[in-house]
Amino acid sequence: MKVNAIRFRWAWTTLGGLACFAVLAAIDLKLKAESGFGAVDLQHAQTAGDVQRIAMAWQSPRHAAMAGFGLGFDYLFMPLYGFAFYYGTLMARDAFAPATGAIRRLLTMLAAVPLAGAIFDAIENALETYMLVNGPAEPLALYAYTATGAKMVCFFIGLVMMLIGIMGLFKRKPAAEGDGS
Questions:
Q1: Pick from 114, 118, 87: which is nearest to 15 by CA?
Q2: 129-145 burial, b if ≥16 CB within 10 A, otherwise e?
Q3: What is the pLDDT along the chain (181 residues), one digit of tens a residue?
Q4: Is the distance from CB of 17 to CB of 81 less than 8 angstroms?
Q5: So what's the pLDDT on residue 99?
């Protein structure tokens, strides 16, 4: 894929991801202010009892609708942040490892990490939604919490790599020989 295509795809997935994040943050802050619990609290629920406390706080139709919309809308956010970090890592690869070699191959493989994080996020949301609809269960709460941890590791790796990719946008290109500089 050409560098300009990577940058274009990075730009629109990043902007889309930021817009989705703003919507999710607004919903979550309002939900937490009104009910005492937000989606982030659900992500940190380690036991069925923790999930049950949150589900009880979200029993009103208004809170249930806000929580459900947030969990559903997160599925739009997942591929946007996953691919924004993917393309950001490819930008880092192209800026700092332009020649074929082990570092370039490593960065190419590392680009898949945020996509795996988005998959862990989908698993986490599916488990949380299942528990909110059907009642919490101890192993499911632990699986959801574990998926959250894996997602966060992948998310931060992707974020760091994207920031390195952004730094690569400002990297000075070496002067060509014989250009008089």
A1: 87
A2: bebbeeebeeebbeebb
A3: 788 899 999 999 999 999 999 999 999 999 999 999 999 999 999 999 999 999 999 999 999 999 999 999 999 999 999 999 999 999 999 999 988 899 999 999 999 999 999 999 999 999 999 999 999 999 999 999 999 999 999 999 999 999 999 999 998 776 555 555 4
A4: yes
A5: 87
How many Å apart are CA 51 and CA 17, to the nearest integer? 27
> In three state form, how does the secondary structure of the chain look?
CCHHHHHHHHHHHHHHHHHHHHHHHHHHHHHHHHHCCCHHHHHCCCCHHHHHHHHHHCCCHHHHHHHHHHHHHHHHHHHHHHHHHHHHHHHHHHHHCCCCCHHHHHHHHHCCHHHHHHHHHHHHHHHHHHHHHHCCCHHHHHHHHHHHHHHHHHHHHHHHHHHHHHHHHCCCCCCCCCCCC
- Give residue 98's pLDDT: 86
Cα 153 to Cα 137: distance, rounded to the nearest angstrom: 25
* Sequence-ordered list of residues with C-beta below 8 angstroms from that of 112, at least 6 positions apart, any chain: 86
Helix 113-134 to helix 61-96 angle (10° resolution) is 170
Tokens 């945020």 belong to residue: 114
Closest listed residue to residue 117, CA positions, set 163, 161, 76, 83? 83
